[in-house]
Write a structure and sequence with these properties.
The chain is an alpha/beta fold. Helix content is 41%, strand content 21%. The strands form three sheets. The protein has a five-stranded mixed β-sheet. A five-stranded mixed β-sheet has the order 10-9-8-11-12, with helices on both faces. A two-stranded antiparallel ribbon has the order 5-6. A hairpin with a 3-residue loop joins β1 and β2. The radius of gyration is 21 Å and the shape is globular. It starts with a strand and ends with a helix. The chain binds zinc ion.
């Protein structure tokens, strides 16, 4: 019998999108599938099993899948193999996802927090290659993160480390989804920018362009504010500057505590680009006094929307080695 080519699989479960992919053991993506996240977890499992098995079957069973790693929105129970309280995936919560997938695919399966996987993906295949210690921060509707310390994911008690979006930035800041207030996520995420813009609309201190857009759409997104700022709108610019300053303060705190070689920023809000990075670097230069910041780079993520899948390939590869040594 001919030797089969070993591959690993990864899945990224998002609030709206569900992605699955297969890669060679050195992380070369061979195929990627995507669908809308089904409301029912059983349907999600069916889809994952179907696309992965069909791809392997279509290749005449020349490939053998050794392991699967699934990126899940938190909070999750990694040891129990299930999502616990993901806000947009109510019916998936507490469903025995790992065990169902493992039984159906007959391979070891591991669940991991999606931001942690993105950190691992960037560390092994993206903007963090060659870095012993790095912090990954994703800024989109929320703010998440992952810490790689000594070339390993730092998990903390009950796998709860890395929630960089929930460090307090302002004692009197707005209420946060986590139950606290003034968290980085409540001050600097896309949702926070949106809320700050709507507050301006509500109290009459928005610009004319902001009002026009609001009246047309019935809403204002972080992207709208970034676009208006780009066009020279002073109010939009100040809202954006404020959010980027808070982000810079959060990153200054992370650098002061961890002194990582690299801080990698990803997520939709960082698409603002160089302007955001320059602003954050300026705040960091002003606030970080006891760490040699010239040795620390603050850089954009490289793997874009696929960082979770690439982190999944890396963990699945480790998982398959662990199992084969048993
Ligand atoms: Zn919070």
């Amino acid at each position: 019998m001919t030797e089969k080519i070993p591959v690993v699989a990864a899945v990224d479960i998002g609030g709206t999108k569900l992605a699955a992919a297969i890669a060679s053991v050195d992380g070369k993506m061979l195929v990627r599938f995507q669908t809308t996240t089904p409301r029912e977890p059983m349907e999600g499992v069916e889809w994952i099993v179907m696309v992965l098995q069909k791809w392997l079957q279509d290749r005449g069973r020349n490939y053998r899948n050794h392991a699967l790693c699934v990126g899940c929105p938190g909070p999750m129970d990694r040891a129990g193999g299930m999502i616990l309280r993901a806000p947009n995936l109510e019916s998936w919560n507490e469903y025995p996802l790992r065990d169902e997938l493992s039984a159906r695919l007959a391979v070891p399966v591991e669940l991991e927090n999606d931001a942690n996987l993105a950190a691992i993906g960037e560390h092994r295949f993206g903007a963090g290659i060659g870095c012993r210690d790095l912090v990954y921060v994703t800024v989109s509707t929320g703010i998440g993160g992952g810490l790689v310390i000594g070339n390993k994911l730092y998990r903390g008690v009950a796998d709860s480390a890395g929630e960089v979006g929930h460090m307090t930035i302002d004692l009197h800041g707005p209420a946060c989804n986590c139950g606290s207030r003034g968290c980085l996520e409540a001050m600097a995420s896309g949702t926070a920018i949106m809320h700050a813009a709507l507050e301006r609309v509500g109290n009459g201190s928005a610009s004319l362009a902001m009002m026009d857009l609001y009246n047309m759409q019935g809403n204002l997104t972080a992207k709208d504010i970034a676009d208006l700022a780009q066009q020279g709108d002073q109010v939009a610019s100040s809202l954006l500057d404020q959010a980027m300053t808070y982000l810079g303060i959060g990153i200054s705190n992370l650098i002061t505590v961890l002194s990582p070689q690299r801080v990698i920023l990803g997520g939709g809000v960082t698409k603002i680009g160089e302007q955001l990075f320059e602003h954050v670097r300026k705040v960091v230069r002003e606030r970080v006094r006891l760490v040699p910041i010239e040795k620390i780079a603050i850089v954009p993520a490289k793997l874009g929307g696929d960082s979770v899948l690439f982190g999944g390939f890396s963990l699945a590869d480790e998982l398959s080695h662990i199992r084969s040594e048993e």
